[in-house]
Amino acid sequence: MSSLHLVRASVPTPKVTLRHRLLDFVGRGPFLLMHLACLGVFFVPVTWTALAMCVAFYVIRMFGITAGYHRYFSHRAYKTSRIFQFILGFIGASALQKGPLWWASHHRHHHRHSDSELDPHSPVANSVWWSHVGWVLSRKYHAYDADSIKDFMKYPELRLLNFFHVVPGILLAVLCYWLDGASGLFWGFFVSTVLLYHGTFLVNSVCHIFGKKRYVTGDESRNNAVVAILTLGEGWHNNHHCYQSSANQGFFWWEVDLSYYTLKTLSAFGIVWGLRKPPLAKLPLLGQAKSDATPAAVSEPVVEAATEVVPQEVVKS
Ligand SMILES: [Zn+2]
Ligand SMILES: [Zn+2]
Question: What positions does the domain Fatty acid desaturase occupy (predicted)?
Answer without folding.
Answer: 47-244
